[in-house]
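[audit] Reproducing an earlier prediction to check determinism. Same input, same settings, fresh worker. If the tokens differ from the archived copy the diff job will pick it up downstream; this log only records the rerun itself.
[audit] input (225 residues):
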Amino acid sequence: MPLFTIESTYRLPVYRHRTYEAASLTEACRLAIEDDDWESAKRDYESAGETYLTGAWVGADGAYRGQALRVPTHFDETVQRKANHFEVLLGLVKMLSGVGDAKQSAYWAGRATSAVAKAEAILAGMKDPAPDAPAPRPHILLSFDESEVRATIGEVIAHDEVVTVLSADSIGDDDIHAACVAAVAAADFAEDRGSVLFKAALAAIRSAEQRRDGRMEKGETGKEE
């Protein structure tokens, strides 16, 4: 069997107790951070961190000499896994918050689902999900932007004088945002969603039947599993 050299690491807390004279707790904390005198430091062996891997090489005693290998990320220190994945999650949140198009929303929602699965694995102390694992493919039924509501307000006021004596410009962004939040919370699309799911299921069945009939017309008589 092949041989591998693995570098394992754990963090050992080093601490000190020192008294500082300061006007406030915040000032005392700042002095402690800036203090670079660690002669009285102690090691806290009972609070040693988890074991994680920081290197791998092919062969015996091959550390920093043999062929370096990439260690799977789920063997990283948990806090580092969280830090690395935070940037991914933040980027996805930014993309999702700025996407108004339904197709684009579905595209980024799919990637967000995979990112959330990895985040949950990190929190559970488990390995990363397999990269080839099938990911859900969500479809967005409804999406709208507050700018569309503002445009609609202008149209409503322009075509119906009895709605309000206010001008469209007098309705603020905060008014629109609060109204959108309330409208979404009150909306119930359960029936519409069920109808869409049912229609999609029937359409998928019809598509499979048409594909089967087409094959049979070409002389393929084998039964599909």
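[audit] rerun output stored. Observation attached for the diff report: The radius of gyration is 30 Å.
[audit] end
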